[in-house]
Write a structure and sequence with these properties.
Length: 391
């Protein structure tokens, strides 16, 4: 009766069942997986939501690509970062997830494929399947830092591949795409008729400058390229559903792509008028929230690296983002680690296999977690580690 898109096992896994049982029992849970900035104890500007009260939001004036003032605000966001983006290249969506759906509709027919990095965000499989598209992984190699395995990526390109997804910054590895990598991929895409899709939602959260780091791909000209971001991470406001796609590449090809994207958007008209009208004020308020997030994540990372020094655990180097990856002894599987930490110590972390990390054993913790909770939870993790390794 139902579509073959729904091919996943809906049964909760062991971690989900244990977490639910602890919540129902009222047991303590030190959640080190927090990714929702609105629950992370940040101070939002008191007037941040006032633009939503604009009476103009009561008038419906549909525009497939988005209201001009909202797109101008996005263009200003890029201008503040040294990038020139024309309003006519910006298309608004309700979220980055919806942006992926639009791009998969634009670029791929049912049964076609897109390349996505591994390790990375687990939502890709779901987003692609909803469009009857298949994801194929290309490897990120770790050698003291993460980089794209260009030979592995080239080997993964076949006649069904329609696009290559770059996650810039990859939030779970904490790595940015490098200039040399873009310089290698752009001609590959041009010659094979592929598009680059750059997910830049975490691009504002670098810990330090890096001359090798690629800039935003919104300025790409050699091949068809699409850059995505949105308020969820840029302003730390995931409840305000507004994302965007910037279309770039050779002029004629980019023009045709944008025209077709407008056609798709006109079919759905999903972006609300109030949030579009509020976009200039919301983006103007973003820096205050970003400053707090960068301070929180940097503080937690520095403390974590110092605390784990000379222990049996380590922290993989990260260039930015909201997460840290801990490498722990392979005396247990990742699943056993997370179940033991939650069941015996009340500490919730995520296993590396959630994000397709290679091998064992990796644990993923959110640097967005409030400092006191983060330090208490990591302290309990280290106590468990010390107890286990001293046996």
């Amino acid at each position: 009766m139902f579509s073959a898109r729904f091919h996943w096992d809906p049964r909760p896994n062991r971690l989900t069942r244990l977490l639910q049982a602890r919540r129902e029992a009222g047991a303590e849970i030190l959640d080190l997986t927090e990714s929702n900035p609105t629950r992370a104890g940040l101070a939002y500007p008191e007037d941040a939501l006032l633009p939503l009260a604009d009476p103009g939001g009561l008038t419906y004036d549909p525009s497939p690509a988005g209201l001009a003032a909202a797109r101008d605000a996005v263009a200003s966001y890029y201008a503040a970062r040294g990038e020139t983006v024309e309003r006519g290249r910006i298309l608004l969506t309700a979220s980055t997830s919806e942006g992926y759906a639009y791009l998969f509709k634009l670029l791929a027919d049912p049964g076609d494929e897109v390349l996505v990095p591994r390790p990375s965000y687990p939502l890709f499989d779901f987003l692609a399947a909803m469009e009857s598209v298949t994801v194929r992984p290309y490897p990120l190699a770790y050698h003291g830092r993460w980089s794209i395995d260009l030979d592995g990526l080239r080997a993964a390109v076949n006649e069904r591949i329609r696009a290559i997804v770059l996650v810039h910054l990859n939030n779970f590895t904490g790595s940015f795409v490098k200039r040399a990598e873009v310089e290698a991929l752009a001609p590959l895409c041009r010659d094979r008729g592929l598009a680059l899709i750059a997910d830049e939602v975490f691009a504002d959260y670098a810990f330090a400058p890096d001359a090798e780091r690629a800039g935003s791909l919104c300025g790409a000209r050699e091949c068809l390229a699409f850059t995505m971001s949105g308020l969820s991470k840029v302003a730390g406001m995931p409840q305000l559903k507004l994302g965007w796609i910037v279309a770039g590449g050779p002029r004629g090809l980019a023009d045709e792509a944008f025209e077709k994207l407008e056609w798709i958007a006109d079919t759905y008209l999903s972006v609300s008028t109030p949030v579009q009208r509020a976009a200039p004020g919301l983006l103007a308020a973003a820096e205050s929230v970003q400053r707090q997030i960068r301070g929180r994540t940097r503080s937690n990372l520095e403390w974590l690296c110092a605390r784990l020094r000379n222990t049996a655990a380590g922290v993989l180097p990260v260039e930015g983002g909201w997460y840290a990856v801990l490498q722990v002894p392979r005396v247990r599987s990742e699943e056993e680690w997370v179940l033991e930490l939650l069941g015996s110590h009340g500490v919730l972390v995520q296993p590396g296999f959630f994000y397709d990390f290679p091998g064992e054993a990796y644990l993923v913790a959110s640097l967005l977690t409030p400092e006191e909770r983060f330090r208490t939870g990591i302290g309990r993790l280290l106590a468990s580690l010390t107890s286990l390794t001293s046996l």
